[in-house]
């Protein structure tokens, strides 16, 4: 391999005519399983880079196609990858090392789990999604719209309306990106590559893990926290073979949990860490603000909060005196409680320390050595590889053992099924292969995507995941007793023919003892919305696994079937302590038929008569029905009201992206088709209706959009939106 690098350094493959500056560093010695290593010229000159590529060939049994360039834009990289794939159909993934351009995606928020920022109102730096789906999902089509003025590696793209509208990554990808300057950048990447090479010299099965849940996440549901442990036990049996294998920490165990975590993530032998918490680019939110029982603490806490709020207001350019006056009026506090906000350095530092005590910052990790090979952030923004000082890079480039992080570049849905297919990691699947199966637009795998834990099935499972297999093959895997293989088979058979295998998935849901298999069956069935889904959705509200109950309630809201109102009420009555499930079920009831809900509340009065405060519960349910009816009416009236501003009407339309008022659709379609209405309003209605991917009114929406797109009188911008909405409604999109 060393000779191969010397031979090829500086040469250019004949098929890369669009980029003569590219350096081909290595061609694959084997072609059945190929990895593309894309890097820049400075990193390519590093001995560590060569050693990493050699390791992929010798230890990972991968053919390596390594190429370097001063890449001008993501299109150049994507075209290179497509050329490699044409020559080597065995290409299974890529590693993007160093200054490889970043695609900032727009017009594709439906492919995220939760990101819904207004792309017109907010700057495109904020309202775009950094995503390597640009590289690893070859069927998506984009159009370039420009380079960022301050971040030269950022390039903005819009998803083309005629593109496929859901993600099914063909390849896996991983980022190794340093934001250091000059030679330090190459040194930082080289140290990481050395760590990746050294890791292959030690056998490391996945038999120790840490799971942490932070404050204010998933409604702080203890049931959710407990039940995830049961599901993990099914997926990763070796972790639970002794007391040291699994540690589950909850923020409520310690008011200064961050310091406990600093110890735990350094524990020798730790393999996998899952953080479930709120996050930001540079920090992990660990604890809620400290609390106390005495008056002095309470007063001190309020004063600290007021001073911090005043400083934030000043940073945003607000007048300090006006901010003080507003907070005095709002909270009824004395003016002296704001004293020292700006002119007392000791107090300012103390406030800063107080605020920081509940968070982990990327700068702090320089003093910590994480032992975990893989770290998963079920959190907003913790995977923002494209920003300096991102928390993900702090784990990767520090002095610890971390080789892979998985996070998100924007906010992410709290109710995401974080541990979906997690058993693959325990069976020795490459981190990239696991990530590829669960990719969303905002998800990001950083580090070495080829890394995997040691397991006897590692070679066979990676071959299974990378190769194209027949339906007969997947039927055999479905008959296995291993849920990890069975769940992959369920996915592959569904992708091959959803209609044919929906009855099979229904049977699996009805008969499986595995929480994970029932969850996978429900998730796949919910994508169809067919009779098989309707047959299990109600039963799923009474499933022993909390996540199944919660997601069933969420997906019923997206489908809109009033027939499930009684079961949703039963859920609220039966599981009053399931905080997150109660929130989800209440939200679902708020978008369903409020008149039917009121009838069912009356019918259920006897069922909750055992409640000590049953009258209070009765009144709360009535309020839920009343507020749902009121909010739906206000939304519709706000959209139809021609006496208000166009922007005010559009803001009401945007509410439909989160609140699925299915009953309003027949009244919105005429507005969408009305040529006398403002084009931007009509466009926003078309876009909003694209979120109703499982609605019982989906057929009406598709028919209306087809008429719009076929009409010569329809403005092109509206026609394009109609085409995209049709594509969205015919795709499989559920977080």
Automatic annotation (TrEMBL):
InterPro entries the record matches: ARM-like, ARM-type_fold
Protein name: HEAT repeat protein
Originating organism: Pseudobacter ginsenosidimutans
Lineage: Bacteria, Pseudomonadati, Bacteroidota, Chitinophagia, Chitinophagales
